[in-house]
Amino acid sequence: MKILSIDTSSEACSASLNIDGELVTQYQLAPQKHSSLILPMCDELLSQCELTLTQLDAVAFGRGPGSFTGLRIAAGVVQGIAFGADLPVIKVSTLAALAQQIKPDPKLETQSIKIIAAIDARMQEIYCCVYTIKNGQVDATMDETINAPDDVNFKNILSANDTVFGIGTGWREYKDSLTNKPLAPPLTNIFDERLTSAQEIGLLAARKLSDGDVVSAAEAIPVYLRNNVAKKSSKLK
């Protein structure tokens, strides 16, 4: 299984090759330079691994939510690669890719682990989703949402027996608003500087490819979330 993954949804720009579970990644924190960096990153990875685009099984990208401009760049690059090499496309949630970065102590595997991924959406809002993790894979327990931090309420999503982690820039910008809530138990740790990376997108893409969860190049469309809730942000109750 050979998958090329890219992500330009945040300040970071990254590309990764997943070759039968082995990951080779390029990652650079480079705001507003994604359009000039991402294709050279892909070319360098392919050259390093002695692969051509036609030898890949699929191409994946962080489909959002995230930076509007960054998501459009990723979608455009992936569409071009997929059309040119006749490859299927795998769309991976950037929030899920964030959650996938959490590597809990193996001793916690018998417990209920919840990960709250939150990305700063600007305009005093956050993109948010809650995930469970089991056997190294994350699964969403709710729909992705966009909310004002003060509107987020976790009391019916988390239980007293959960081990809870927070991750993403939403925690960096709005930690006080997110922690001063009915949240039980307290968070075990918060990773508020983490950004989405193509490496985790590649891990999640492998699972999707095995499940046949792919789209055509024409269907490689970003998920913005804000467009879906322009009238009123829904609350997590």
Proportion in β-strands: 25-35%
> What is the distance, rounded to the nearest whole angstrom, between the alpha carbons of the first and last residues?
41 Å
Along the chain, the helix and strand elements come as: EEEHEHEHEEEEEHEH
CATH topology of the largest domain: Nucleotidyltransferase, domain 5
The total tally of domains equals 2
Average pLDDT rating = 90
* pLDDT < 50 stretches: 228-237
Helix content: 25-40%
CATH superfamily of the largest domain: ATPase, nucleotide binding domain
Number of strands: 11
Write down the CATH class of the largest domain: Alpha Beta
* Overall CATH architecture of the largest domain: 2-Layer Sandwich
**Major β-sheet, in short?**
6 strands, mixed
Structural category: alpha/beta
Instruction: State the shape.
Output: globular
The gyration radius over C-alpha positions equals 17 Å
Task: List the total number of helices.
Answer: 5
